[in-house]
Amino acid sequence: MNRTPVADLTDGQQIDQVFRAADKQLRVNRQGGKYILMRLSDKSGVIAAMMWNVDETMFESFQRGGYVHCHGRTQIHNGALQLIVTDIESIDESEVDVDDFERFDANESDRLMTRLGEILRGLRNAPLRQLAEVYLADENFVARFKKAAAAVSNHHAFPGGLLRHTVDMMELCQLVGPRYPQLDADLLTFGAFLHDLGKIEELSCDGEISYTDRGQLVGHIVIGVQMLGEKIADFEKNGEAFPAELRLHLEHMVVSHHGQIEFGSPKLPVMLESVTLHHIDNLDAKLWSYTAAIQTDVSGDGNWTNYTPSIGRKLWKKQS
Amino acid sequence: MNRTPVADLTDGQQIDQVFRAADKQLRVNRQGGKYILMRLSDKSGVIAAMMWNVDETMFESFQRGGYVHCHGRTQIHNGALQLIVTDIESIDESEVDVDDFERFDANESDRLMTRLGEILRGLRNAPLRQLAEVYLADENFVARFKKAAAAVSNHHAFPGGLLRHTVDMMELCQLVGPRYPQLDADLLTFGAFLHDLGKIEELSCDGEISYTDRGQLVGHIVIGVQMLGEKIADFEKNGEAFPAELRLHLEHMVVSHHGQIEFGSPKLPVMLESVTLHHIDNLDAKLWSYTAAIQTDVSGDGNWTNYTPSIGRKLWKKQS
Amino acid sequence: MNRTPVADLTDGQQIDQVFRAADKQLRVNRQGGKYILMRLSDKSGVIAAMMWNVDETMFESFQRGGYVHCHGRTQIHNGALQLIVTDIESIDESEVDVDDFERFDANESDRLMTRLGEILRGLRNAPLRQLAEVYLADENFVARFKKAAAAVSNHHAFPGGLLRHTVDMMELCQLVGPRYPQLDADLLTFGAFLHDLGKIEELSCDGEISYTDRGQLVGHIVIGVQMLGEKIADFEKNGEAFPAELRLHLEHMVVSHHGQIEFGSPKLPVMLESVTLHHIDNLDAKLWSYTAAIQTDVSGDGNWTNYTPSIGRKLWKKQS
Amino acid sequence: MNRTPVADLTDGQQIDQVFRAADKQLRVNRQGGKYILMRLSDKSGVIAAMMWNVDETMFESFQRGGYVHCHGRTQIHNGALQLIVTDIESIDESEVDVDDFERFDANESDRLMTRLGEILRGLRNAPLRQLAEVYLADENFVARFKKAAAAVSNHHAFPGGLLRHTVDMMELCQLVGPRYPQLDADLLTFGAFLHDLGKIEELSCDGEISYTDRGQLVGHIVIGVQMLGEKIADFEKNGEAFPAELRLHLEHMVVSHHGQIEFGSPKLPVMLESVTLHHIDNLDAKLWSYTAAIQTDVSGDGNWTNYTPSIGRKLWKKQS
Amino acid sequence: MNRTPVADLTDGQQIDQVFRAADKQLRVNRQGGKYILMRLSDKSGVIAAMMWNVDETMFESFQRGGYVHCHGRTQIHNGALQLIVTDIESIDESEVDVDDFERFDANESDRLMTRLGEILRGLRNAPLRQLAEVYLADENFVARFKKAAAAVSNHHAFPGGLLRHTVDMMELCQLVGPRYPQLDADLLTFGAFLHDLGKIEELSCDGEISYTDRGQLVGHIVIGVQMLGEKIADFEKNGEAFPAELRLHLEHMVVSHHGQIEFGSPKLPVMLESVTLHHIDNLDAKLWSYTAAIQTDVSGDGNWTNYTPSIGRKLWKKQS
Amino acid sequence: MNRTPVADLTDGQQIDQVFRAADKQLRVNRQGGKYILMRLSDKSGVIAAMMWNVDETMFESFQRGGYVHCHGRTQIHNGALQLIVTDIESIDESEVDVDDFERFDANESDRLMTRLGEILRGLRNAPLRQLAEVYLADENFVARFKKAAAAVSNHHAFPGGLLRHTVDMMELCQLVGPRYPQLDADLLTFGAFLHDLGKIEELSCDGEISYTDRGQLVGHIVIGVQMLGEKIADFEKNGEAFPAELRLHLEHMVVSHHGQIEFGSPKLPVMLESVTLHHIDNLDAKLWSYTAAIQTDVSGDGNWTNYTPSIGRKLWKKQS
């Protein structure tokens, strides 16, 4: 089946092909009429789509994150292309060419996971090294970590983004830590490994990245501490106790890494390592999101991006 | 041994009796001289004390929270009575009349714990009732809960204060919950029970109330979630799974009860019950601390307390 | 005349029937063309309507809050139904079936007013009881109180909402007050009665709820104090002076009930009763608005409402 | 009786003379001992004084703001002179030379009140002119206005300060108003007259300036609106109604003059005149308090004052 | 060529005439299609315009701020008139009647510049008078000052607005300064002259007012200090040194005039003159922008403007 | 002359030796008596000192930062040692052994300056390399840079601290820059060199570190831009223009390095390099001040420092 990538769709085009249903909502007018508002995607992009006059059976007939065969027609509305769907049918993953839809770069994640393992296994602190092995031996954890995103819409908001952010931070810790003799570089690096792991449970990457119930009710900081508790329990199954104070330090690295109470850390960083971790997290996240704002900017003004509300400024984008 | 209660000490009095060492700090002048700054207490009050020209051996010779026999002399400094200690010796609890020193009201805590049990056992939600039994069956938990404080210096800052605050809130929940049919009153009441339990580990009540290492590094909100996890694990040991969604709701009640991110809750309340819990917590805590500010006020102005910085205002104290 | 309720209107329908003109604005394009933007309502709902190419005579020919007979046609714009009016004519209330338009539940308001009277007459404080009688004897006040709203768009934003909010708070005060012996429960309950009465003058309920000039220039807190002054003057007409200190306390309850300066109270609560009143107000208002956000949510996601900007979060809406 | 002015007292001096008791507090040590902390003043200054080992009868034997004959001795404590009182006796105003104690400049207040009357009688708006006459005909009002302070410790914190601030602002309004044709200069000037009149009731100038109960419970903004209501009632006693909209505007000028909600105005300024009034108030108050900070500064650094916490900065004080 | 002014354009009109290209952006759909979004202006107003399916050559074929001959058709979209351009061609200024396009009032600017010169030459401080001559002798400076705007979208956002704001403030300084003997009125007035001169370089008035690169990277406060440095260097070329302390004072007036750190002043005002300058700036800017909000308001509600987000309120607009 | 180092002084010691007058203030009691409050220092520490009953001649007889021979006696006041001076005499530097007083480590500053030169000369960007040579060729600049402090009381508050902070940041830039290919590492590193150079003029290191008039009136950010302007003028003296855009970028690095408006940067960072510079500055400054808080902490609690108000927390200080 020969399909047109989303990025190549144009106005007034008849559509008869497969998309991924990245998001779907059943909307109701005050007048009682129902329609489905969808976001249909493939690897090349995403397009808003509407299907009018539907009922709940129709809405339930396909899954968020699943594949759908659509008939309809594109149109331009307010200067943006959208798709009016007249017919939609759920189809099985086996019937689609998954390469058309997958934005996740498995090779890159494999490479990063290998690098992450090297760093962790190179730590001098034995309990941390052994605890790392507990994490790395958990295949389900590793598989989910590889595909996790670091955010819904902020920095590293793509499948694999959490791993990328984590490894970049660990590498920075390896550079910065030794510059300050007062820092325990192993604790710092292990903190970078741990700090956002709760996002594996906080965010769902099926379809569009979105919060899970657990993510919204409990949040990745507390989840990360819970996950650490499970891994330490596994560690201790072979009879050796994990050092109690080190456990508090690891929990503290996770709990305080947002740096300030008003950014969602229930405790301020009170160790030199947690202070440093917060700043390195901040630097890597800001650089990623600002770079992305520059790369995706479409304004015609050669030197400056459009004003980006989430950043509160325009950015200089001209190549020197 | 006939001792003078702290509240009855006067200026220029020779001292030769036992105190409790509520707090002790080894201080160092820039000139290198060391002295001990202590707070010595009995049931009737607390007095600041200094011992000059000491060494670390002296400082280590008695414990914070332990009993000490002191020689010295009182004096007034800046209008406040203090004690200059010339000799100090640690003595065993067996040698003192504990009744002279204990502010904790065991009978009141027993009464409150009984009331707490009644309320929990009266819930209609079976898993919550059974989970309550797991908590109540843990004798160590019950014993520590009875003596725990709710704060170092804010509301309910005394041994037994956490239990008092918890039961008062649960009773309010029993009154307010049924007024709003949209609320799950059982979840609300159980949330009141759980919300501050992490303070049992966050605060130490030996000597003066103070933060534990775990309290400062991790904080009572995360500790409370960890404790809940242990109790649910106990619950599930007899083979029955605790309802997964209910667990998230309980965790959420703990995580969000400060009501706003900048007050230390890593997630905002997003359930009607967690919103209500936050407001009831706020009401009970504010009323307690404002009432205490009025009761302890020593200003001679009949209608108004002195300005209380932690409250940001003077309070009307005249009895109508 | 057989009219279609607003809630049953559909796309492309010819309209020839009566509406209530809930709101009207004369808008001017930069190009100088004028049009009327209206909100037309009946009991079942409200619909946006436009009438193009009008002059000021046309705009002045009907009243905000009055009844109008309209010709026109419905259409869907940006997914929402709207009405393009081609002809509009003011008609007298005598010509319409008021039952089609009235959202106000007079029976409920009668019931609540009776309850309010019971509570006030049950107070033990004689001057407060007598002052209550002055309010209740003012028929104009009672009539306007019954129909008043508590807000334009926040909590209890409907005719009768102020009374509902007031009685709910007074009932809470009756429950909470006796739990804290340090509180004067009568003062607390009377404060709940008084706290928002200024909204009777601050808001107009003709047509859509909106601010009066006095409401915008002076505000309900100051108006409430002014109203209290008038009622105390009436009280004193029979020769007895109202207790001076009690008057200050009542004024303070009104002035401080927003709880913080930045929320519009020119003075902080400095009495235990005013502190309590603020928290009870906050609890009832928040529960109402959060419940309304859940009830009116139209998102198709079973567990969560859409993000509500005024609340700053999504709410859990699944029934447990 | 030959007395030494407070400003001329030195260390180690025997005291046997009259002071004014500017402030008095009965303080209690935890040890139960009571002492009186006083501030004793005359025209030349104020000195802190303590009287040890007193009872409540002693404390009640003289009045705040009254005259007392004291025996005692001066001493330097922490580099400041204080007075240890051994005997104190209340004496009648008739027995003292009031000129030794009065900081209030009656001539200056008379001059300013005359100027204020000229400005008000020069307004072109007839109802405002007539309303001004109602205020000026109230002898009690005029007498209290002349002696009122504008603040406890901020700007214009002295008897007569309110009048000075008011007239200075009215003169500025006379200059600034005509520069902006869009302003109603009469409304602006009358707003300057009204804006702080509530302080006459908010602050007491007997002894040290302090808040009255009414001031703390209700605040000068609401009091000012209440006073305006009384004066308008007087105005209308001769049968003529005061213009309703103008009344709202005057109330609004008072209510909004702090300029922002968080500064204690329950409504924002929404008229050009109230916006202007706020800025002129701000300018005059800031200039007064900064000038006072420079004049009273005692630091030895020729160019800069000490850091002033209420202002958040050091000020340049060198004469150019 | 007979052209229709922008203010007189109506729906469905064929267009074949010249506009000024006030702004232009090249926009890209996700689908890769490019279009130009323009704002086309003449003296009478501005209209949004779109040209679909363009390439970069087309976009580069005319300049922002230049003149263009357009073919196309007007249409109403969301109630606002816009222009769909089908053909666009850059034309030279010599071919247009500049009077049709120029909003700048040269006569008014000449008048204001004369007045500014009078004030500066009337100062008693000789070095300030001489420094003023250096500025006024710089023809390029004078020419650019006359046409500069004071803001992009806030107060005085039009060519000539900076001069208007500057002279209005200087006149206020001449009135207010002498009212306060503690002020150096010359320094105050010269500060008003200097305070916003950096905006001449910060903003570009070609086409729509917009920030220059230097404006966005460095900002008018720092630019103003740089400009002052250049002028003082010119001053000193004839061998006389400018007084060093006075230079610091002038720099301080520029640096601190926003009044608070969070408003962009890197230093707080610490001189009475800089405090006063800030308040006068604030008053003039606020009055201008509030007056403009009233004058341009198009709501049909006689007493109130629409809510203006930048001001955070509705304004009373009824003429008393 | 055999002197006792400040760190070795004890209570009740007769003093007859030389100190450095780190700070001096002439204080005046309300009673008109004058005294000098001094801080006397040598390399080992600093001690507060008072001289009573002085006149201005005495105060002027020695210089802040100069050497003085003092007679007097030590005493303990409020637990801190102080010196009551009875006689003081200014003496010339030639008469003292400067080694007793100098905290500045000239060798370390030489080493750091060499390293700084290496880094700057290793940049690939030719104009930056040449501009660096202009700075390095200015001997006065180099000499003052070597001795400058980075703050009065915050991080790196010692002579030589600015150089230490600058070089540490440049080294971090050398490590971090290459990790992010989107960064211009040369611009980043040069920005680190420039960012705080204005502090050379903002702070005076004679005696105690303190602000200069220029520092308080203008501030180091603007001064840094002024210094850059002078160096670029020197650069251009040999006929070559410095690249205009690069100049704006350098100015922007200085102007924006505090990262947020409310921290004193008049412009936000809008380049990836300025964003990065801010984070690296923050990291190095925070680590330094937190490490210093740990090192200088004197509390006897083994795990935690005392609460440090400037940091808003206690810090974990136990060595793991």
Largest protein-protein interface: A-F, 35 and 35 residues
Q: Kindly report the oligomeric state of this protein.
A: homohexamer
Beta-strand proportion of chain A: 15-25%
Q: From the alpha carbons, calculate the radius of gyration of chain A and give it in angstroms.
A: 23 Å
Low-pLDDT parts of chain A are: none
How many structural domains are formed by the residues of chain A?
2
Question: What's the SSE pattern of chain A?
Answer: EEEHEEHHHHHHEEHHHH
- Give the overall pLDDT of chain A as a whole number: 90
Count of DSSP E strands of chain A? 7
Portion in helices of chain A? 40-55%
| Overall CATH class of the largest domain in chain A | Mainly Alpha
Principal-axes geometry of chain A comes out as globular
> Main β-sheet of chain A: number of strands, strand sense, barrel status?
5 strands, mixed, barrel
N- and C-termini, Cα separation of chain A: 46 Å
Number of helices of chain A: 11
CATH-defined fold name of the largest domain in chain A? Hypothetical protein af1432
SS class of chain A: alpha+beta
Keywords (chains A, B, C, D, E, F): Hydrolase
InterPro entries (chains A, B, C, D, E, F): HD/PDEase_dom, HD_domain, NA-bd_OB-fold, NA-bd_OB_tRNA, YhaM_exoribonuc/phosphodiest
EC number (chains A, B, C, D, E, F): 3.1.-.-
Protein name (chains A, B, C, D, E, F): 3'-5' exoribonuclease YhaM
